[in-house]
From TrEMBL:
Protein name, per record: Mitochondrial ATPase inhibitor, IATP
Subcellular location: Mitochondrion
Organism name: Nesidiocoris tenuis
UniProt xrefs under Pfam families: IATP (PF04568)
Similarity comment: Belongs to the ATPase inhibitor family.
Disordered: region residues: 25-47
Length: 104
């Protein structure tokens, strides 16, 4: 369940970032109106720097989310491997019980 939520958040973040890039980043207000703040709306080198900082922030955030997802998947794999081992031990134990019943 937690994995689904993490994947949904990751996909949503990617979609939002893709939709917001209608023109050149930091080049001023786009066709849709708002430009993301006073500095970005003004354009120029400050706008481009702010846009680059924003892109870097979202890149790091996405990278962090992927690392969390990988960790969660690793934990889930470990859990299921332990469950397989427990089930295999139980199967062997029951087979031994059946074998002992047949000997009697």
């Amino acid at each position: 369940m937690a994995l689904r939520l993490m994947l949904k958040k990751l996909n949503t973040a990617q979609s939002v970032r893709a939709m917001s890039q209608l023109g050149d980043l930091g080049s001023g207000a786009g066709k849709g109106g708002g430009g993301g703040g006073a500095i970005r709306s003004a354009g120029g080198s400050f706008g481009k720097k702010e846009a680059a900082n924003e892109e870097e922030y979202f890149y790091r955030q996405q990278k962090e989310q992927l690392e969390k997802l990988k960790g969660a998947l690793h934990d889930e794999i470990t859990f299921h491997e332990e469950q397989i081992k427990r089930h295999q031990d139980a199967i062997n134990r029951f087979k031994d019980q059946i074998g002992n019943m047949n000997k009697q």
